[in-house]
Design brief:
Layout (H helix, E strand, L loop, with lengths): L4 H5 L23 H31 L2 H12 L1 H28 L6 H29 L9
Helix pairs in contact: 2-3, 2-4, 4-5
């Protein structure tokens, strides 16, 4: 006969645990808005660092003379370049607005579940709106800049 550890130590055996999944399945589990905004805040921080490297490369190209600057402008004026710049603008906008949201949290405001969810949705929508306003303004202020490097 084999004795269990509980029997040897004189403590009762542990009740059997209820059978449950170890973690929620991705098709069932829905991310809370606060989790999404937290992950996006970190990701946009990394994207902003990459965007600053791109901005630095553009400035270095400008310092190397007109040929290097023209090459950089052509790359950034391509469809892919514009998508990268749009993504960088969206990243900056999101990080700015979510940073403001975090400042309110630092003073203890906005921690309610409904408030945190609603402000998270507002930050997501506001970032997209701010990005669109920035790009629309750029095209209105400098309409010839779209094809200026060609």
């Amino acid at each position: 006969m084999t004795l269990t550890r509980g029997e040897i130590l004189g403590t009762p055996a542990q009740p059997t645990a209820r059978e449950r999944p170890l973690s929620p399945h991705l098709q069932i589990y829905r991310w809370p808005v606060t989790m999404l905004t937290s992950i996006l805040h970190r990701a946009t921080g990394v994207a902003n660092a990459a965007g600053l490297v791109l901005l630095t490369a553009w400035l270095v190209a400008a310092s190397f003379g007109p040929n290097a600057y023209l090459s950089a402008q052509e790359a950034l004026s391509s469809i892919f370049g514009r998508l990268v710049l749009f993504g960088f603008t969206l990243s900056l906008s999101y990080h700015l607005l979510n940073g403001i949201r975090h400042l309110f949290w630092d003073v203890g405001a906005g921690f309610g579940l409904k408030t945190a969810r609603n402000t998270g949705l507002a930050v997501l929508a506001g970032a997209l709106l701010l990005t669109l306003i920035i790009w629309a303004s750029a095209y209105v202020i400098a309409p010839g800049a779209a094809g200026a490097s060609r």
